[in-house]
Design goal:
The chain is mostly beta strands. Among the domains are: 1-31 and 49-54 and 61-129, no CATH class; 244-294, no CATH class; 322-426, Lamin Tail domain (Immunoglobulin-like, Sandwich), CATH 2.60.40. Helices cover 0% and strands 31% of the residues. The chain contains no helices and 29 strands. The protein has strands at 84-89, 94-99, 117-119, 122-124, 139-144, 149-154, 168-174, 177-182, 195-200, 205-210, 216-217, 225-231, 234-240, 251-255, 262-266, 280-281, 284-286, 289-291, 294-295, 326-331, 336-340, 347-348, 352-357, 364-367, 372-373, 378-382, 391-392, 405-411, 420-426. The strands form 12 sheets. A 4-stranded mixed β-sheet has the order 20-21-26-27, with no helix packed on it. A 4-stranded antiparallel β-sheet has the order 24-23-28-29, with no helix packed on it. Strands 11-12-13 form a 3-stranded antiparallel β-sheet, with no helix packed on it.
Length: 439
């Protein structure tokens, strides 16, 4: 709807009054008396202004009269157009009409506009008048100037609209319904793993809410606890991170609470340590080495040690012995074998020996070094380039695919066939050598 403007005259207007009412419309440059009427005294020029001025008396000058300003009349009493006001110009002594203050409320005379306001001396139309009617979705209130009434009217299909659910983006009217596309909050940031971002239909903003229930999470305030899960928006549960793979002698594998990564921490002299030999106890760190352990003598179940004099009847660990170590893999070419500990306790391989019998005079006999093989663990015995915990023979294993051979594992010296605990033999081209009796 075109909004009308109500124009007012901006030119300055000088108020001229009849001589019979005011002599000049403004007071002359006469200093006013402190009295509102003529005081007694010599006669003379009483106030030339009749409004409140004292006349001449028989004696003395007339008083200055009641005027307290330069203009003879109250400019505020002068009627002016809308958004115009009359004020006294102290320099000219005349009443002048000027623009009213911007923002002053006014009425442009149009029913279908409200909250009209003055701007640069004009009464500018305000917002459309909706008569206080709240339209439904896909309706607009139309004002009729002639009847001075308002009524809701359906918007056409495709017209933009504001849905009740503010999470509907790009909403338009379709047969009276305001629908759009659901706002995607998937990539909006959330504070942690136990929250997801969803749209709030009240304000149309993506906000974090509890989510990922039962899913894995990382607690940034507890990085050394792993396997936590989300419960009602909180990361709970979990177990301490295991860094024992880095523990060796007087170096302890620990979790760095700042990074959540495993690192090493050196123990001080005199600190308790573990030499990984379950048959010793009371070890202490000394110059970086874990030493001073005393042999375990008590028969204690499940401590991983079977001391001398103990049996399976009074120490279940005695069911674990080197005689159960097995060769589980033998490789020809890049020669190596794999030893496996199938028992439930750690066993030191130190007393054991391996005979690499290749049916030639180049047989290699290798005494296994001190090496504690954990329960259920395996270890590689290689001829070169050991990696990690691999055991290096330091000599070439002369296996060949063109002739037979065998790897013989013994508890003690393999020169005594009674010490043999396991053998893996192979034949290719020519048979392997004779195996010890009983194998």
């Amino acid at each position: 709807m075109k909004r009308p403007y109500r124009f007012a005259i901006l030119s300055l207007m000088t108020i001229s009054l009849a001589a019979g009412s005011w002599a000049s419309g403004c007071a002359t440059q006469v200093e006013p008396s402190s009295s509102s009427s003529g005081s007694s005294g010599s006669g003379g020029q009483g106030g030339a202004i009749t409004s409140g001025g004292g006349g001449a008396t028989a004696s003395g000058d007339g008083g200055g009269g009641g005027s307290t300003g330069p203009c003879a009349v109250d400019c505020g009493q002068i009627q002016t157009p809308v958004c115009q006001v009359a004020q006294c110009n102290g320099q000219t002594g005349q009443c002048e009409v000027v623009a009213d203050i911007d923002g002053t409320g006014c009425d442009d005379g149009v029913f279908c506009t409200v909250e009209d306001a003055c701007a640069n001396g004009l009464c500018v139309a305000g917002p459309d008048n909706d008569c206080g009617i709240a339209p439904a979705e896909c309706e607009e209130v139309v004002c009729d100037e002639q009847s001075q009434t308002c009524a809701p009217q359906a918007q056409p299909n495709g017209a933009a609209c504001t849905p009740t659910d503010l999470c509907q983006e790009g909403a338009t009217c379709t047969n009276g319904l305001c629908t759009g596309t659901a706002k995607d909050c998937f990539f909006q940031p959330v504070p942690d793993d136990c929250h997801v971002s969803e749209c709030n239909p009240q304000n149309g903003q993506c906000e974090p809410v509890a989510g990922n229930e039962g899913g894995p999470c990382t607690d940034v305030n507890d990085l050394c606890t792993v396997s936590k899960t989300c419960t009602a928006g909180v990361c709970l549960g979990g177990v301490p991170m295991n860094c024992s793979q880095l523990t060796q002698d007087c170096v302890l594998g620990v979790c760095d609470t700042n990074t959540g990564q495993c690192t090493t921490q050196a123990l001080n002299n005199g600190d308790p340590c573990d030499d990984l030999d379950s048959c010793t106890a009371g070890e202490l760190c000394q110059s970086g080495s874990c030493t001073g352990g005393q042999p375990v003598t008590q028969c204690i179940n499940n401590d991983g040690c079977c001391p001398s004099g103990c049996t399976v009847n009074n120490d279940l660990d005695c069911a674990c012995n080197l005689g159960k170590i097995r060769i589980t893999e033998l490789h020809i070419g890049t020669d190596y074998l794999v030893l496996h500990n199938p028992t439930t306790c750690a066993l030191d391989l130190d007393p054991m020996e391996i005979l690499f019998d290749d049916s030639t005079s180049t047989d290699l006999t290798f005494q296994l070094p001190a090496h504690v093989l954990a329960a259920g663990a395996s270890v590689y015995v290689v001829e070169s380039s050991p990696v990690g915990t691999d055991i290096d023979t330091g000599s070439n294993i002369m296996f060949s695919s063109t002739r037979g051979g065998a790897a013989i594992l013994c508890e003690g010296s393999c020169s005594n066939s009674a010490n043999v605990v396991d053998v893996v033999a192979f034949s290719e081209g020519e048979p392997h050598g004779a195996l010890p009796t009983g194998i």
